[in-house]
Amino acid sequence: MNRFLAALVVLGLSCVALYAQAGKKTRPRVVKTPTKTPVTEPGTGSKPPVLKNETPNAKSGRRPPVLTDTTGKQPSTQTNQSVEPEVAEEDDEIIKIETNYVTLPVTVLDRNGRFVAGVNKREFKIYENGVEQRIEFFESVEKPFTVVLMLDVSPSTQYKIDEIRSAAISFVNQLRNNDKVMVVSFDEKYRILSRPTSNRSQLRYAINQARFGGGTSLYDAVSKTITRELRQVKGRKAVVLFTDGVDTTSRRANYHTTIRQVEEVDALIYPIHYNTYNGYARGGGRNIPRRVPRSSGNILIDILGGIMTGGNVRVGSGGAGTSAEEYRKGKEYLNELASYSGGRFFSADTTYNLDAAFRSIAEELRKQYSIGYYPEVAGEEGERKRIRVRVSRPNLVVRTKNTYIVGKGT
Q1: Which one of 97, 129, 144 terminates a domain?
Q2: Is the distance from CB of 123 to CB of 393 less than 8 angstroms?
Q3: For a Cys staple, 372 with which of 43, 122, 222, 293, CB 3.0–4.6 Å?
Q4: Are 133 and 104 within 8 A, CB to CB?
Q5: What are phi and psi of 221, to 5 degrees?
Q6: Residues of the domain holding 35
């Protein structure tokens, strides 16, 4: 009996050993498959990718890099496998790819100022600081746009206000369903009359609500529009600025700082210049207050000056420009806004048909070309680079930015 029990025990142990050995040979090995990452095409507006260690490598023990966005998150992908928590390794490293990807809104016109469609990528050439660049992204599809209408309601434009309102409403009439317009007015203060909308009735009402004030903080208004309002707008965007170009009361911005800001934003500026100097000097046929020089900043000097000049000096910040030189400078400023942004300058006094001009602006914004490239030579932060864009077809005019400022590496 004892021998029989001993035989059963030996037989049982042998079976267990055989089963364990068989399991060792047939158990499948689980290998994690590296996650595939989507390819981002240039010009999509996304930030440059960041390489980050992610999936274990069986041979080296290190983890190969995969693309993540700049927040450190991996792009979402679908997978049927569950992801196990990873163990942090001391030799992990993050490699950032720093780029200065440049995108340009480009308009091509014929000699009569009409937009030219159908120009293909091969017909464009881009030069940065004289060196030809390789075009990485090209787009020529029609898209909706957002425009900020800026209305100068300072004292110097008072007798032109009906023309300015009429012109602004004329531009609104060029809108299509998906186009949007924002309305702001400025004198010494900056007022938002309407947020971006496609509602024409709301926009006309907002334009007619523009009211006069004192002083002209043109530079402050341009700066605020560029740095605060436009940066919140996605897609194609522009500013249509109705003004005489004269600034009298800006405190936070000036001529040169706003030009630099224009170089750093991807928006076109279309100044509509109104010559108010002669009309303001003679009263414009209306009961308009006389032009007054700006305050010197010293009240006593202002009072003495008023006594000596018969009272034609204002104490405190004032309204209109004081000389032909200021008006000349104002017109020059508007020309530079257009030039540095890639927009166009219009003179309301010499443009025969503003309606036609506005139709042209709206068409340019919807159908403009978008071109992107990576500079052959990386610049230093804050460096100004010069750009030239050319097309091979004869008798065409190309309008785009002629400079840009190198920003911080991404």
Answers
A1: 97
A2: yes
A3: 43
A4: no
A5: -65, -45
A6: 29-97
Asked if 139 and 279 sit in the same domain, the reply is: yes
With a CB cutoff of 8 Å and minimum separation 6, the contacts of 33 are 79, 81
Q: How far is CA 88 from the centre of its chain?
A: 40
Residue 386 pLDDT: 93
Beta-carbon neighbour count of residue 195 at 10 Å? 13
Give the per-residue pLDDT at 285: 39
Distance CA 148, CA 256 (A): 21
Domains identified in the chain, total number: 2
Measure the CA–CA gap between 310 and 403, rounded to whole angstroms.
48
318, 380: one domain: yes
Q: Is 4 inside any structural domain?
A: no
Q: What angle do CA 250, 298, 155 make, to 5 degrees?
A: 40
Beta bridge partners of 186: 152, 190
Q: Report residue 397 as tokens.
A: 């005019």
Q: Are residues 267 and 187 in the same domain?
A: yes
Domain limit, last residue, from 97, 121, 136: 97
The answer to whether residues 58 and 131 belong to one domain is no
Same-domain pairing of 56 and 115: no
Residue 90 burial (CB count, 10 A): 4
Same domain, 110 and 126: yes
